[in-house]
Write a structure and sequence with these properties.
By secondary structure, the protein is of the alpha/beta class. The protein is built from 7 helices and 15 strands. The strands form 5 sheets. A 4-stranded parallel sheet has the order 1-4-5-8, with helices on one face. It has a 4-stranded mixed sheet with strand order 11-12-14-15, with helices on one face. A 3-stranded antiparallel sheet has the order 10-9-13, with no helix packed on it.
Length: 325
């Protein structure tokens, strides 16, 4: 019962009791006025720090230029876990209301430094960088759903009924033994385990900022079974991305969640040949991600995408007015 209802109920009871008293009794005092509604909270900014397709790149994968016009000889070495960690920390320091998210393929197709150890080093690294939510990508299914669940939940890789010698090697680098598993949440809203009819991993996660909850829905591309070995996707159904998101909106609204971000492992490419990392030539027109976003419910506020490895760190305006990728 709200405050106004409580005041009204008290006033009615008081009148009923006073009617039984002497007619010379003084009239009851008027009920106090309801307290004014609190003013609306002032808007505030949340910094979403997103990246994608890490692919176990614990060391620098090579050199990179801001665009294709930069001569190869002038392109500096980039990437590697230590530089990514420093950059994320710097961005987080700019706004205490922050969240670190991913758009999938953080494991799989990895260099030997991660792949030899079943990508456990990459998970341990992301734990320490502070990743919080990550959509599954197609490469998360390279070794099948059971292995993905192990990487989420922790524990050693078993081979032939015994612990594999390349698993749970944390003692060599100062991380927990057995393998700690992902401290972040992998999200798989459109990946359904056929045995249960439910998402293999949570469909979404939430984080609250100044009392305001924000939902993060995670998905891979529906076409994942066409680019992963059959054993990797056995027992799984991959559903339409936009339909999956739109079906979740009533549930989120009923939970009082108004701010919704989609993390999806699908992408597109810039038009033209410059491919500047701070540009978005063509706004991804005609791409798979543009097609998905055009069908999303207007309740979705932002989309973080991946998969195609394009050169861009910019925000691209999609076909829906006000929606950014």
């Amino acid at each position: 019962m709200n405050q106004t209802s409580k005041l009204a109920l008290t006033f009615i009871i008081f009148i009923a009791v006073s009617a039984c008293g002497d007619s010379d009794d003084p009239a009851p005092a008027p009920a106090p006025a309801p307290a004014p509604a609190p003013p609306p909270a002032a808007p505030f900014a949340v910094k979403i720090i997103g990246f994608n397709d890490f692919h176990g790149s614990l060391e620098s994968p090579g050199t990179f230029g801001e665009n294709t016009s930069v001569p190869v000889a002038n392109r500096p070495p980039v990437g590697g876990a230590e530089f990514l960690a420093a950059h994320v920390a710097r961005l987080k320091a700019q706004n205490s209301n922050n969240v670190v998210v991913g758009a999938g393929d953080f494991i799989g197709a990895s260099p030997l430094i991660s792949a030899l150890f079943f990508d456990e080093p990459s998970i341990e690294t992301m734990n320490r960088i502070g990743l919080e939510f990550n959509a599954v990508g197609n490469h998360e299914f390279d070794k099948g759903s059971a292995e993905l669940l192990r990487l989420q939940n922790g524990g050693c890789k078993m081979t032939g009924g015994a612990q594999d010698p390349n698993s749970c090697r944390g003692a060599s680098v100062g991380t927990p033994v057995p393998f700690e598993g992902a401290k972040f949440k992998w999200l798989s809203a459109n990946v359904i385990a056929t045995a249960t009819g439910r998402p293999l991993l949570p469909a979404y996660g939430t984080k609250t900022f100044n009392g305001v909850p924000v939902a993060f829905i995670g998905m891979t591309l529906r076409a994942t079974p066409t680019i992963v070995t059959p054993s990797g996707v056995a027992g799984l159904e991959f559903r339409d991305e936009a339909q999956t998101v739109n079906a979740l909106i009533p549930e989120l609204r009923a939970a009082g969640i108004e701010s919704i971000v989609v993390l999806v492992h699908e992408g597109g490419f810039q038009s033209g040949t410059l491919s500047d990392i701070n540009g978005c030539e063509g706004n991804l027109a005609g791409s798979a991600i543009a097609g998905i976003v055009s069908k999303l419910d207007n309740a979705v506020d932002a989309v973080v995408s991946g998969h195609t490895h394009p050169r861009t760190t910019a925000s691209c305006r999609t076909q829906r007015a006000g929606r950014f990728r």
